[in-house]
Amino acid sequence: MTTIDWDAAADSFDEEPDHGLLDPAVRNAWAQRMETWLPTTRSEVLDLGCGTGSLALLVAGQGHRVTAVDRSTRMVEQARAKLAGTGSEVLTGDAGLPPVGNRRFDVILARHVVWLMPDPEAVLRHWFSLLRPGGRLVLIEGVWNGVGLSADRLTALLGRHTESVHHEPLAGDARLWGKEVDDERYALVARLEPPRRHREVVDVHLILRRGPDVLLARRAGTGYADGLLHAPSGHAEDGEDVREAVIREAAEEIGVVLDPDELRTALVMQHKGPGGNPRMGWFFEARYDPGRPPRNAEPDKCSELTWYPLDALPDDMVAYCRAGLDGYRAGERFLIHWHEDGDPVAYAPEAPGRAVSLPATADPAGGVHHIELWVPDLAEAESEWGWLLGELGHVPYQRWAHGRSWRRGDGYVVVEQSPDLTGDTHDRLRPGLNHLAFHVRDRETLDALVRRAPGHGWRPLPPGTGGRGHHAAYLENAAGYEVELVAP
Description:
- It is a single chain.
- The protein has helices spanning 6-12, 24-37, 54-61, 73-82, 120-129, 151-158, 242-254, 319-329, 378-391, 443-452; strands at 44-48, 65-70, 89-92, 105-111, 131-144, 147-148, 165-169, 184-191, 201-210, 213-219, 229-230, 233-235, 264-272, 278-287, 302-309, 334-338, 355-357, 370-374, 395-400, 403-408, 411-416, 436-439, 458-460, 471-477, 482-487.
- It is of the alpha/beta class.
- The strands form 4 sheets. Strands 9, 10, 11, 12, 13, 14, 15, 16 and 17 form a 9-stranded mixed β-sheet that branches.
- The chain starts with 5 loop residues before the first helix and ends with a strand.
- Mean pLDDT is 89; it is low at 1-17.
């Protein structure tokens, strides 16, 4: 600890440049404050706008190594004399751009300096660059007779660099000033934090499927995108995972209580709205259950719930929800949807497409791209295959005059009534295709499909052995195509 002869200092320097620190009571009050603002271990302190060095002398007296800077040569001379023997260094230079080269400090101290700077934002940015990781700024400022820098303004400037700002009012402590004061005087201690991590709001969206249809809600009274259609959705709250969030939102918005096992991850999409901040959207798929019909549980935020065909969605939708459903229908798993600031919030068919697909790690090479079935009656095939494939998680994909297709992942199934078709029946016992086999989630789902199949054109066939470790059921449609359903 450095020993300071304050009596000698009082004999040598005028009181005015020392802000009253020659008064022992004032000096002791500032020393007590400095002990709370500075690190408890020996640190490198940069005192900017040091004047005659009174605060620097307090800091040195508490065991810290001080580098002091002032632009006045007269002040620098007095500070050097006052700090002689303390191991401190006093430099002549601008406090805004101190002449310290590449050196870094644990603390930067400035008293009644920031308010004098023509560009305090740039000065603070530079001062933060001079701090070591975990370092701090100790800024003593105020407003006197209408001039100065308010704590609110300085806190806002510091908030662009750190979220850790401690505000300490000083006007109420008369010991610091040697008298009672009634203006604004304060200290701010701002710590240099690690670089702020990027943070995004997490959205969750429910794709509730009823065969080829999806449920959409029309927004109303929310102040954002009102009048447009959107899937049931919301934000994940603190402490929630995305699955918990979509279950909560489904219950709150459409009155449907989902079990976690009913959910399937459909799509993840990073989105930025026009003029907004990025957010991460998780789209989950769930199946409609006639025993739990959806209802409008938030009439103050939603004017209607309506089912729409997934392959014929309406245009009056929120653009990024439409992009998510289009990506889901196309079998995409990861998308970026980045609006330009001038883009509309609403889907606009004529606007440039903003969705960018991100390929998944799986290599599709060698996998089944698609299976094409030629059928004698397209309308009948669309009804039969559309129901079954929809129940198995396929989504409507392509539609043209002679054909339809349904997609799941990277592969899809086509039914086509081709003009080149010869014959009007399919014989699965002849050379060629015998049957298609599909995974089913579980035995309960398998049994339910078999029970409902006759109502959609499929006739159950006698059960087979199923093989070891799984159950199987067989269905045949009116055209003679056979499907095997396999459950664990």
